[in-house]
Each structure stands twice: as C-alpha cells, then as structure tokens.
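Many groups now describe folds with learned vocabularies. In that spirit, our science desk offers one protein's residues alongside their backbone shape tokens.
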Amino acid sequence: MPYKIPRSALVVIYTLGGTVLLIERANAQRLGTGVWQSVTGSLDHEGESYVDCAVREVMEETGLDARADGHQLSDWQLENTYDIWPHYLHRYAPGITRNTERVFGLSIPRPVDVRLSPAEHVNHIWLPWREAALKVSSASNEVAINRLSQLIV
C-alpha cells in the first residue's frame, strides 16, 4: 500500500443554528478511548485538491454530498501543521512526522442521519457547537469548531 500524503482536509459539518456533527473513530472506540472528531482525511494523490479531498471525505465518512442543494462548502483559509500521532507514523514515508491540514466548513440546513463507514467510524452525534468543541480529541478540530461563533446566526 502506498504511503499516505501528509496533507489532509478537516471538514466541520454544521447547521446555521450552531449544531455540529461529530463522528467517533472505530479503532479508538475499540480501544475504549472514544475519539470524536469532524470529518478528516488525507489527499488520495498528489494531484487531488484540498476541495476535492474535502468533498470525497464527507461522502466517504458520512454519505453526505457536500455539493447538494442547500449545502455550502467553504474553505476557511486556515491551515494547521501538527505532529502525526506516533501510532500512525508507519502510514507515512520514512522521515515524515508532520501533517498539514486545510480547514473547511460545510453548512447544511438541519441535522440529519448519516451513513458512517463502519471501518472508520462507529457512532455520530449532533451537538451544540460549544459542547462539540469540548468533546473532540484534536486541538485543531476544537479551534475550527470554535470559529463557528463568527459564522452562525
């Protein structure tokens, strides 16, 4: 299997009323740690844009079409660079220890049931944005969700 590209998209899915979708990672849940996050995933190939990655990951992880009527995907023009967790380093080429993550928001009209990829996620929950920011395991995800205070009605 080829190495992962150390560039990814983070997509905060939310309603204009301030409710945020979180999904629970399957591998972490099996370990009993309950890792909750927004949609996230690496570029599939060097030619894939961050936007295309965001659209693909939303579909793969939730079954939602980011380009559907009433859905608004926006590039928040924010990038985070962080250390890759040690237990994931084997997925990357030797010497790669950091990932750059581009942040997007996807507003949808109301909370909906989603179709999770069972290999990746086992549960989902819609929470008010303040609660969602406290529940996520990633600091960059928390910062992204807190940006909603500037966007929601």
Remarks:
- Residues 7-150 form a domain with the Nucleoside Triphosphate Pyrophosphohydrolase fold (CATH 3.90.79.10).
- Strands lie at 7-15, 19-25, 36-37, 39-42, 72-83, 98-108, 121-128.
